[in-house]
Automatic annotation (TrEMBL):
Entry EC no(s): 3.1.1.47
Keyword Transcription: no
Protein name (Swiss-Prot/TrEMBL): 1-alkyl-2-acetylglycerophosphocholine esterase
GO MF annotation terms: 1-alkyl-2-acetylglycerophosphocholine esterase activity
InterPro entries, per the entry: AB_hydrolase_fold
Highest classification ranks of the organism: Eukaryota, Fungi, Dikarya, Ascomycota, Pezizomycotina
Record keywords, A-Z: Hydrolase, Lipid degradation, Lipid metabolism, Membrane, Transmembrane, Transmembrane helix
Entry's transmembrane regions: 104-122
A biological process term (GO) from this entry: lipid catabolic process
């Protein structure tokens, strides 16, 4: 199967995403796996049993191909259509496959085209949430990911999700687009390939607390309140914006959440001045490329932390924020490749006290590095059976550590798509296809599960309370503790 007009070198469950073969075997290139294994994987039609097949599409998809694209692929499998874009099929079979595909996409296209503006479901925590963007420039290094080599500095962009205590004063809301146009266009390109409108992601909007209209009395009464500082890092080739609802949701439980875009890695980054850095086709089948990107991300995060500790930047940025950031309570979590970034950052930056990998594979050098700080591996049920890196990395977790499984999820569930699609209606056939890509879990339940895991973990690393984490399976029926160490 081709991804972004290039064939990946890895045969199975290598680092991130679908490779030449649709089954994961081991983290090994195709040339080291048997030809028979690769051929068998390519011929596999195991969507319904799918111990391995469908979910393997979802490891760090190279933007802009996201879950809508893989919904199309799931539908193809569901109805016995052509699976491999790269394998040979007869013209007659291909014609029939396309005709049958469009039979099922036509009603979906109609459904989406009539929906209009859709408000993303709001957060469930006790705090209102405000949002601010902040561009940052690292002049100490040329941009290592710029393929032209012309960028003499590294430009970055972050979103800050700020909890606002409204127990005394309510906060007026402001509605903003879920994605800016360049990012929405990147994610919409692949939607159009399957009969869905390329404006799909343009239709969504989010509500935030409007601090400009928040009562001065409400601001003054909470100025001294401190909130922990939590970083989020996205998957490989993903925009921070595809995780906006998840970041806002955690912030509503009393955390300042910072999500990060890594230019040239992300599908597109639009800065407040209107300038745009488009993503490039980084070869995620090349371990040296992945290691380079991991180091760049690590350096990005450490630079951002330093900048957000600078009063010259933060005082004007947070002038209307009724609260303070507790920089001593600093943690990081990330999805997919962002999970590897989280592990790298807590090892290299002494300011970060703990991290969580959300369903992401680890790579060297961090894979073989001892981690003494608290760390959590959390993801879909059975992840460690399909991803050998988790078992290998577990032996290097020397501090308080835990592996947590969330039932009825797939890798793609840990982005916003599940919540976005929950605002729409689908036929039973489409729902089944979606479950193959995202899992069958209710998005609102997943939101509770994730926030429960994260807040319990933060209770441990910030306050030394391990009871909340140990009680997770009792409080959330979908969540199980697979293993733990020093807890």
């Amino acid at each position: 199967m081709e991804i972004m007009s290039r064939r990946h070198a890895y045969c199975g469950y290598a680092t991130f995403g679908i490779r030449n073969c649709r089954f994961r075997f081991a983290a090994a290139p195709c040339q080291t796996a048997s030809k028979e294994s690769c051929a068998a994987a390519k011929r596999s039609r195991a969507l319904r049993s799918r111990p391995i097949a469908v979910q393997s599409w979802l490891f760090g998809l190279r933007g802009p191909r996201g879950n809508v694209y893989y919904l199309g692929m799931a539908l193809e499998d569901l109805y016995g259509l052509a699976v491999e874009r790269g394998r040979h099929v007869s013209p007659e079979d291909e014609k029939m496959s396309r005709a049958d595909t469009m039979r099922f996409f036509t009603p979906i296209s109609l459904l989406f085209s009539i929906s209009g503006a859709v408000l993303v479901p709001g957060p469930t925590g006790p705090y209102a949430v405000a949002m601010k963007e902040q561009p940052l420039t690292d002049t100490s290094r040329a941009d290592p990911l710029d393929p032209t080599g012309k960028s003499k500095s590294r430009r970055l962009l972050v979103s800050l999700y700020l909890p606002v205590d409204t127990s005394r004063r309510s906060c007026p809301t402001v509605t903003v687009p879920y994605m800016n146009p360049p990012v929405a266009a990147s994610y919409g390109q692949q939607a159009a390939q399957f009969g869905l409108p390329n404006t799909l992601y343009n239709e969504f909007q989010m509500e935030f607390c409007d601090l400009k209209k928040f009562s001065p009395c409400g601001q003054a009464s909470n100025k001294g309140k401190e909130y922990p500082f939590i970083f989020f890092d996205p998957g490989f080739g993903e925009s921070r914006l595809i995780y906006s609802a998840m970041a806002r949701s955690l912030a509503s439980h009393g955390y300042v959440v910072v999500s990060v875009d890594h230019p040239f890695d992300a599908p597109a980054v639009q800065f407040p001045d209107g300038s745009v850095i488009e993503g490039v086709d980084l070869d995620d089948s090349n371990l040296s490329v992945l290691q380079k990107v991991l180091k760049v991300r690590n350096d990005d995060i450490s630079f951002i932390i330093s900048q957000l500790e600078d009063p010259k930047i933060m005082k004007p940025l947070l002038a209307d924020f009724p609260g303070k950031i507790n920089y001593k309570q600093l943690a990081i979590w990330g999805h997919s490749f962002g999970g590897a970034t989280a592990a790298a950052v807590i090892h290299s930056d002494k300011r970060v006290v703990g991290g969580l990998d959300l369903d992401g594979m680890l790579i060297d050098p961090i894979l073989s590095t001892d981690i003494t700080k608290p760390f959590i591996l959390a993801g879909r049920k059975g992840h460690n059976a399909e991803d050998p890196s988790w078992n290998q990395f577990w032996t290097h977790l020397k501090g308080k550590s835990m592996e947590i499984a969330i039932a009825n999820t797939q890798h793609g569930a840990f982005k916003d798509d599940l919540m976005l699609l929950s605002t729409m209606s689908f036929t039973a056939e489409v729902k089944e296809a979606l479950q193959g890509v995202l899992g069958s879990i209710d998005p609102h339940q997943l939101d509770k599960d994730l926030n429960g895991i994260l807040t319990a973990y933060f209770d441990l690393i910030f306050y030394g309370n391990k009871q909340s984490l140990q009680a997770i399976p009792h409080n959330f029926a979908n969540v199980t503790i697979v293993r733990s160490n020093n807890l």
